[in-house]
Design a protein that fits this description.
It is a single chain. The protein has a domain of about 230 residues: FAD/NAD(P)-binding domain (3-Layer(bba) Sandwich), CATH 3.50.50.60. The protein contains 11 helices and 19 strands. Strands 1, 2, 8, 9, 10, 11, 17 and 18 form an 8-stranded mixed sheet that branches. Strands 6-5-13-14-15-12-16-19 form an 8-stranded mixed sheet, sandwiched between helices. It has a 3-stranded antiparallel sheet with strand order 3-7-4. With about 400 residues, it is α+β, with helices and mostly antiparallel strands. Helix 1 links the parallel strand 1 and strand 2. The longest helix has 29 residues. The chain is globular, with a radius of gyration of 21 Å. The structure holds flavin-adenine dinucleotide. The site of flavin-adenine dinucleotide (FAD) has 32 residues, from helix 1, strand 3, strand 12 and helix 8.
Length: about 400
Amino acid sequence: MEHCDIAIVGGGMVGALAAALLAPTGLNIRVIEARAPEAFAAEQAPDLRVSALSAASVRLLQQAEAWPHILAMRAWPYQRLEACEWQGFHTRFDAGELGSDYLGYMIENRIIQSGLWQALALWPNVRLDCPNGLNALQQTDAGAELTLTEGQRLQARLVLACDGGESLTRQLAGIGVTAWDYDQHCMLIGIEADDLESDTTWQHFTASGPRAFLPMGPRQGSLVWYDQKARIKALTALDNTALAEQVKAHFPPRMSNLSVLNKGSFALRRRHANQYVKGAVVLLGDAAHTINPLAGQGVNLGFKDVARLSELIHQGLEARLDFAAPERLARYQRSRRPDNLLMQTAMDLCYHTFSNNHLPLKVLRNLGLKAAEHSGPLKKRVMKYAMGL
Ligand SMILES: Cc1cc2nc3c(=O)[nH]c(=O)nc-3n(C[C@H](O)[C@H](O)[C@H](O)COP(=O)(O)OP(=O)(O)OC[C@H]3O[C@@H](n4cnc5c(N)ncnc54)[C@H](O)[C@@H]3O)c2cc1C
């Protein structure tokens, strides 16, 4: 039987950040991850899986000492965010209005994870166990006992479930979820084009679902096409040239000479764990909640989970108290679950309000976008919230 203080199942963006923020405690941390991220090479086209990271998430990556590694690979700042449906009815957020250089960064998920792994390599108390996975989990008086796919048995005081939406750790701990599928599916399309507004991310609402653009460099970007399942399936079957023609026909005319580099599609599912803590098991990131990606908040919420739990564990150790005491873990759940639920609900409201053809609602939502544009202090508050300031 091997021992550690904290076992983290899943070394993706959320699990790796948790390890990096907890490493300075000196606790013995074991990260169990099934797959290592593919090595980065500058000539690779940007991956399809990209995250719009808020300024607050960037700060956490700086604190984790992963930021220089990420910048040494690639990351793209954006200064403006636009949401519109009818021409002339839009809301625009500009980092300059808050005296900031950027609203956030577009970064490939693999690069965020790789940057964190490079930072973890400097901590002798953190062991990255990859490839390995979780097979079985048993709660004990001293924490939990894990059986790994490579055959080891591991006793941990605390187990952090960071193994994504389908979390096996959550299932083995017996934590249920409330979940449903959205009607819309989502297609990610990597593109190269001229005349890209490379400092602006935009979202254009249509009755069948939003169309969005995420800048990834002076000539590259990622398009997001939300639509009914059958439509996304038909688009996925097209070759890149035919898909580029469909994009030209159905996206706003904001770019020219467009060519498609890669594509992929995803079903959208909302999930929320009924509890975030059970015995020695704590859920973070997508293991606890998956959200409609329409406002790019998923991993930003996961990073907030990590920041809160890490703060509570640090406080416990500084006060020479049990870092994994039930009341400490309950405080984590009390502070994060309502916040995540609120964001999920706000995204659902947005999803239902914008994805339909009901004329009065159409008028109202366009008036809403225009009103938001001129709402002064309220607009600034929304911007600050989105940036995590
Ligand atoms: C189409 C789409 C677009 C999105 N866009 C954005 C965006 O712009 N901004 C944003 O903030 N969020 C976005 N999200 C959400 C974001 O991708 C997720 O919130 C984020 O990936 C969650 O990170 P995670 O580390 O919790 O889980 P994951 O990224 O799922 O990582 C889980 C890790 O655990 C490992 N693992 C799983 N099971 C086991 C096991 N049994 N044993 C060992 N290891 C295991 C996996 O290999 C993986 O590395 C988007 C999501 C989708 C679907």
